[in-house]
Amino acid sequence: MANPAICVAMSVYNGERFLATAIESVLAQTFGDFRFLIVDDGSYDATRSILCDYQKADPRVCPIIRENRGLVASLNEMLAASDAPIIARMDADDICQPERFERQLAFLAAHPDHGVVGSWSEDIGENGEPIFRTGADHPLTHEDVLCAIEAGRHVICHPAAMYRRDVVMSVGGYHAAFRHCEDYDLWLRLASVTKLANIPERLLRYRRYDGQVSARHATEQQLGTAVAQLAWRERQAGKPDPTADLHRLPSIDQLDALFNQEGISRRVREQVALGLIYSDAAMRGDGFDLLVQHLREGGRRNGMWRTVVRLLRFGEPTRALRLAATLASAPAH
Length: 333
Description:
Keywords: Glycosyltransferase, Transferase. This protein is of the alpha/beta class. The chain has helices at about 15-25, 45-55, 70-80, 100-110, 140-150, 165-170, 180-190, 215, 220-235, 255-260, 265-275, 280-285, 285-295, 305-315, 315-330, and strands spanning about 5-10, 35-40, 60-65, 85-90, 95, 115-125, 160-165, 195-205.
């Protein structure tokens, strides 16, 4: 096929359960001039055979089947392979509304100064059931996006994003150091060179379930988000970005040295620890030890006794007792 208007970029790793539904929602778009790049990132389930079946049925489906390299490598590979000026992101467990591409492409055509447009999303559960949203929707205008960045809030839902390939390539694509929050780091870097916005329509059905990446890697995601915010502030102040050439983020204890500022490590530990207290996966994993260290350093403890109760509900009585003992003995901030 001739060069398409859009390349759809999806990476999948052992995603057989939801993959067909995600693919079909893309193929059913009202705007159909696209090439559908799908990286099979080393899956060992039925992902490969599903992709081959769809490739036979629709020539727009272009699988890239190879060994596992991780999401960031897959995203940059698809950026390099794209022969379209516009990239539409999609995840293998979500569902596009039929008019998603049409709406977003029209927005970019009407706003040439915008490099990225997302949309609001509808949360669904593991089996497609509606989930009641409690948080705020993503910001609409670029000015709202900048305010959201300053406040540390979400900016754009990654699988709902559509962006200009040349703008993303101009800032170096996705950075490997920000694994599991590579999109947030990218939005913050792009916000300095182009405008970002969201369409106030729920053009993506976003699936939430225990097995998804954001649930399994909550601690690493929170740390990366905190470091991306620090790097954003350095760039805003006209200083060099100390994360620009990193392939892996340092530990929290090394952040003072990285940013050449005393107290950064302690502030990040507090931000990450307090951001993890509602995550059962994090409290069952390494996030718990980070929280305990935060409290032993005299960090904020508001609401921590409720976390003890949540640990009991999570089925973690030993950790609940340990947290209670830490609260009873740790110095107050």
